[in-house]
Write a structure and sequence with these properties.
The complex is a heterodimer of chains A (230) and B (856).
Chain A: E1 4-16, E2 21-33, E3 37-41, H1 48-55, E4 63-68, E5 71-72, H2 78-88, E6 89-92, H3 104-114, H4 121-130, H5 146-158, E7 164-168, H6 176-193, E8 196-200, H7 204-207, E9 212-217, E10 220-226
Parallel strand pairs in A: 3-8, 3-9, 6-7, 7-8
Antiparallel strand pairs in A: 1-2, 1-4, 4-5, 9-10
Chain B: H1 19-29, H2 33-66, H3 68-72, E1 76-80, H4 86-93, E2 98-111, E3 116-126, E4 136-138, H5 142-147, E5 151-155, H6 156-161, E6 169-172, E7 175-185, H7 193-196, E8 199-203, E9 220-226, H8 230-247, E10 250-253, H9 254-297, H10 299-307, H11 312-349, H12 363-389, H13 409-430, H14 433-464, H15 471-479, H16 487-515, E11 526-532, H17 536-545, E12 552-564, E13 567-568, H18 569-574, H19 582-586, E14 588-593, E15 601-606, E16 619-624, H20 627-630, E17 638-643, E18 646-658, E19 669-671, E20 682-687, H21 692-705, E21 710-713, H22 714-753, H23 755-767, H24 772-809, H25 818-845, H26 848-855
Parallel strand pairs in B: 3-8, 5-7, 14-19, 16-18
Antiparallel strand pairs in B: 1-9, 1-10, 2-3, 2-6, 2-9, 4-7, 5-8, 6-7, 11-20, 11-21, 12-13, 12-14, 12-17, 12-20, 15-18, 16-19, 17-18
Chain lengths: 230, 856
């Protein structure tokens, strides 16, 4: 039976302010098993980015349980969650989020170096070559185009062979041609690594490449559609 | 039931074992090197100032320890205001100790080549003095020649000033001497008073032949004793102690001189080290401010690192390592700079030091500088860096997501240590917790006041700046209030330097104003003293002959106190209940007699009692304000005077307020007419000489006709005092300059920190149609504002502080040299604009497309 890598139970997130409380997520529950892909889709302000953040351990819910690879994230402190992310999670962001003072190669190496692994450059170079950047090892992010930066981000996401990959609008800042290339790379590498993919996007066409679509509205999970069975 | 894992075992590596943080510190730092270096550049000047002063202090203390004997030239020196009692010398000589003696007195010298004359300190030497150290002369045999009796030696500076060379002739009293050479080094020399009255040396045997030793001449006799051991010195002191007190002598040992000089140097050192410390504190503010902005700008990167698995401490350690390493590097550079500066100080002040300083590196001061620099960079960067630990990883998704407020032990420890640092460091510098505490409070008040003035100024400018003013001026002003601006920090740091220099200027101006003779055109600028009674009328005739005004002819009688309110001086010296300083009880007083107040006096209590001769009247004297507090007396109290063996009982009839520098001579005690006319006395006359050639002619006739009469040219005194103030002021200004330089470094840092934001702004302006010239003007005006506001901030506080100091501490009239203050203000503005413009050149000239490409 496929392993459940991500489980959200009754997730609620309330932001407290002086005037009133804002409920951004309201009792959201779902699961994801190893090797599958799902998209969280919804209009702006629907809570999809908040849900992504909670699932990745970037934030803690006001109530509910979030478990990743069997670890109860909301019961852990920040550093423990960071450790879990390093062990099991990869990220791809809309704004690429590369470290500007590191070269492409160095950006890719960071997650493995954080584990204390040595001699990680060959693996990083392989990944960069795989995403078509074998000529760009020593380039800094400011010397790369948007598409190239996102490739570097992809390589960084996959260097730890993550069990789960979170992608927040990975093609949001790219033109059509680059978006297509990144999409192909993302899903291709995902299939090869058998990573569980959690995608957040507005792009329906991109969403339809995944197996499930979770529709968010007003902080609630309003529908779930199964598109493709692996 | 689902079992969740809620605890994990993860390896936590310390900063020393975590290779990754060091790697990341290097990778990140290599791009930001120039920005990071600016953080600690503000430290460099502070460390340089601290090390320079510290090095000088250790060098001086070392020289004092190694060459103590040279300070005195003997093991024991006994001083007297009259020739030594023969019995006393015999007693001292019984143990066959080696003796030498000298006599020194103020006198006039005339240089026969130029016919110019000057007040000097005439020193007559006899015996093998100095027993330790050497008198270095040019030529080398000049001292031996002088001992023959026909020759004289001159202070090097005196010979230079009056262009006197060997074999020229000078006149001392009634005798001519041939100049044998100049003295380059004299044991224990380098006193500040030597600038006012430089020395001329003759043989003791020639002193009488000058005719200068007369009644009333103020001669100080010294007996130099050489012993073979400390025990022998102690025995000699025990032998002479009872005699010394009876005969009114005093004595000094090497330890005493060393202690006195050491205390003097320590006081000066503490003052200057506190000035240097101010520069260091400003450096700390610069470091903290810059690191704060740096840490904020790293927020997004830290969030990414947290996302991919870095712990909070790892993120903190990356930037901590950068700051610490650069702090150590900056401290080393600062310490080296300080050592370099210390080598220059003897060239500026060598004349005033009684020792010859050996140039070299004080490793102790060097090490202390590095330690302080490293400590400061750690302490003042921890607080802003602590925030890095708590950057939430969610910030990668939401850049506006703030950290939750976390109680951090590190943060509170840093706050406590930062609060304690100025106090502990100042206490260390001054070797006193009280002094350190007072200084810290004073500094906090100064910085707080500057901050308040800066805040007020910015508020007023923002509020009342004309809304319809030119766009360039308005935009330049609004730049001061951009997010992440350091305007207030800049105003305080640059303003503090301007404050110190301006305050020093005000005090110097006020003090000099007191000694300068301005205003009343007839006010005296020349004083003739040591006039014998038989010479008085002839001296007055001489003055009149040269058509000079005779402003004052004043009698002076020397006397001592023998009792106060029925208690003898000896009883008062032993008293525990009445604490009158010993110097006030035992000193020689010079009093005068008249029935009216002088122009510099004001009667504030009592009256000037007119003595009715032959009517069994009491003698009422007036006392100067201040002295009545020292002697603990009031109107009506009795004083017993010993007027050269004749006791006179007096009562205090009044208290006078005396403007001492005004129209001298001024007196502590004034007797009424009819009491002291027959007492042995000398006279002082004052006049005003404006024409230099007239002055030379007058002095020539005076020196030839009345060789025992000395003349003080107050213009010369004033220029010497001015020169002295300038030299001292130079060092203070130099150290205050460190503060300004630190402020300018913080400014450069602020410009660099905001560079990209400024570039984006300028690109937007250009897109909207602004020309390069307009952008340049905006930049220049913006920094002019910073300079003007900083200077005004410092100036406002210095005017207030200067007024308080002159009124309550120095008790002189507040005086401001507007021209010099304008120069200071202008210099601050100019430097600020220059630094700001220099660092903004790239901002002004970056083409828009380059920015847009970076953005894309």
């Amino acid at each position: 039976m496929p392993e459940t890598v991500l489980k959200a139970e009754g997730l609620t997130k309330i932001y407290k302010s002086a005037e009133n409380n804002l409920t951004v997520l309201d009792n959201v529950s779902f699961e994801a098993v190893q090797g599958t892909s799902l998209t969280i889709i919804g209009p702006s302000g629907s809570g999809k980015t908040t849900l992504l953040g909670l699932c990745a351990g970037l934030d803690v819910p006001t109530s509910g349980i979030i478990s990743l690879m069997g670890f109860k994230l909301n019961a852990m402190d920040e550093d423990d969650r960071a450790y879990i992310r390093n062990q099991f999670v990869g990220f791809v962001f809309q704004n690429f989020q590369l470290l500007p003072t590191l070269t492409a190669l160095e950006n890719v190496m960071v997650p493995l170096e954080l584990r204390g692994e040595k001699n990680v450059a060959p693996k990083a170079k392989d990944l960069l070559a795989r995403v078509g950047l074998s000529e760009r090892f020593s380039h800094y992010p400011t010397q790369l185009s948007g598409g190239e930066q996102q490739r570097v981000a992809l390589a960084r996401a996959f260097i730890t062979s993550p069990r789960i990959l979170f992608a927040d609008e990975p093609t949001g800042n790219l033109d059509e041609e680059n978006a297509t290339q990144i999409t192909d790379l993302l899903f291709g590498m995902n299939r090869e690594e058998k990573t569980t993919l959690i995608l957040v996007t507005h792009n329906l066409e991109l969403a339809q490449k995944t197996e499930r679509i979770l529709q968010m509205k007003g902080g609630k999970l309003v529908s779930e559609r199964i598109l493709n069975l692996a | 039931m689902i079992e969740y894992i809620i605890k994990i075992k993860r390896e936590v590596r310390s900063i020393f074992k975590d290779r990754w943080v060091w790697l990341m510190a290097w990778r990140d730092g290599r791009h930001n090197f120039s920005r990071l270096f600016l953080f600690v550049a503000s430290l460099i000047t502070g460390i340089a100032a601290v090390v320079a002063i510290g090095s000088l202090n250790y060098a001086l203390q070392g020289e004092l320890d190694n060459n103590a004997k040279e300070l005195l030239g003997a093991d024991l020196v006994i001083n007297s205001s009259k020739p030594f009692d023969k019995g006393f010398i015999k007693k001292l000589d019984t143990a066959k100790r080696e003796l030498a003696k000298d006599a020194d007195m103020p006198s006039m010298v005339m240089f026969l080549n130029t016919k110019q004359s000057r007040l000097i300190k005439l020193t007559a030497l006899e015996g093998a003095f100095p027993f330790y150290g050497k008198i270095v002369t040019q030529p080398a045999n000049a001292y031996e020649l002088m001992k023959t009796g026909r020759y004289a030696l001159l202070d090097e500076s005196l010979a230079r000033q009056y262009e006197v060379s060997s074999n020229d002739t000078i006149r001392l009293g009634t005798k001519n001497f041939i100049v044998a050479g100049v003295v380059e080094k004299f044991p224990g020399g380098g006193e500040l008073t030597a600038t006012l009255a430089p020395a001329v040396y003759i043989s003791f045997s020639a002193l009488d032949s000058t005719g200068l030793v007369q009644f009333g001449s103020r001669i100080n006799y010294s007996l130099f004793v050489k012993t073979t051991s400390e025990k022998q010195t102690e025995n000699a002191i025990n032998l002479i102690k009872p005699l010394v007190e009876d005969l009114g002598y005093s004595y000094e040992t090497i330890e005493g001189r060393k202690k006195g000089l050491g205390e003097g140097f320590q006081s000066v050192y503490r003052f200057f080290s506190l000035l240097a410390f101010i520069a260091l504190i400003l450096g700390c503010i610069g470091v903290a401010s810059s690191v704060h902005i740096y840490a904020r700008e790293k927020r997004e990167e830290v969030a990414v690192l947290r996302c991919v698995g870095s712990s909070g401490w790892q993120a903190f350690n990356i930037y901590f390592i950068q700051i610490f390493v650069l702090g150590v590097v900056g401290s080393i550079i600062g310490a080296l700079l300080g050592v370099g500066i210390q080598q220059l100080i003897p060239y500026a002040f060598g004349d005033y030091l009684p020792l010859e300083l050996q140039l070299g590196i004080s490793w102790r001061a060097f090490g202390e500088g590095i330690f302080i620099g490293a400590l400061v960079s750690v302490l003042f960067s921890i607080l802003p860096l602590v925030a890095v630990r708590f950057v939430p990883p969610l910030a990668v998704l939401r850049s506006d997501f703030g950290s939750t407020k976390v109680v951090s032990k590190t943060k509170w420890t840093a706050i406590v240590l930062i609060g304690l640092f100025p106090l502990l460091a100042a206490a260390y510098q001054t070797s006193s917790f009280i002094s350190g505490g007072l200084f810290t409070i004073g500094l906090a008040l100064a910085l707080g006041s500057l901050a308040l003035v800066a805040m007020g100024l910015l508020y007023l400018v923002r509020r009342y700046f004309p809304k319809n003013g030119s766009f360039i001026f308005r935009h330049a002003l609004s730049n001061l209030f951009r997010p992440n601006n350091q305007t207030q920090v800049l105003l305080v740091t640059i303003g503090l330097g301007a404050f110190i220099i301006s305050t020093l200027n005000i005090i110097q101006s006020s003090l000099l104003n007191q000694v300068e003779f301005r205003g009343n055109e007839n006010q005296s600028n020349t004083i003739l003293f040591d006039i014998q009674s038989s010479q008085k009328d002839d001296v007055v005739k001489l003055i009149s002959k040269h058509n000079l005004p005779v402003n004052q002819v004043v009698p002076i009688v020397t006397c001592r106190l023998s009792g106060i309110n029925g208690f003898t001086v000896e009883k008062l010296q032993d008293s525990d209940s009445v604490k009158i300083p010993n110097w006030a009880l035992t000193r020689e007083y010079r009093v005068t007699y008249r029935d009216s107040l002088h122009s510099s006096e004001e009667l504030i209590e009592g009256e000037m009692h007119l003595y009715k001769a032959g009517a069994q009247d009491s003698v009422g004297v007036t006392i100067s304000e201040g002295m009545h507090e020292t002697l603990k007396v009031k109107v009506g109290d009795t004083l017993m005077f010993d007027i050269q063996g004749v006791p006179i009982k007096t009562f205090i009839s009044g208290i006078r307020k005396v403007e001492w520098p005004n129209d001298p001579p001024n007196f502590i005690f004034v007797f009424p007419n009819g009491v002291l006319e027959n007492a042995p006395q000398i006279w002082v006359a004052t006049t005003r000489v404006d024409n230099p050639s007239e002055a030379i002619q007058f002095q020539q006739e005076l020196v030839f006709g009345f060789p025992n009469v000395s003349l003080i040219d107050l213009k010369l005194i004033l220029s010497t005092v001015d020169e002295l103030f300038s030299k001292i002021g130079l060092v203070v200004r130099f150290l205050a300059l460190f503060s300004i330089v630190t402020g300018l470094v913080v400014l450069a840092g602020a410009v660099m920190n905001s560079k990209f934001a400024r570039i984006k702004e300028n690109v937007l302006l250009r897109t909207l149609g602004a020309r390069t010239g307009q952008i340049m003007k905006i930049t220049l005006i913006e920094y002019s504002y910073v300079g003007i506001f900083s200077a005004i901030t410092g100036l406002v506080l210095s005017l207030g502080g200067g007024w308080l100091l002159t009124k309550f501490f120095f008790e002189v009239q507040f005086s401001v040299n507007l021209v010099e203050l304008a120069i200071i203000t202008g210099s601050v503005i100019f430097l600020t604009v220059l630094i700001g413009w220099w660092n903004s050149r790239e901002v002004i000239s970056t083409p828009p497309l380059q920015v847009l490409r970076k953005e894309g």
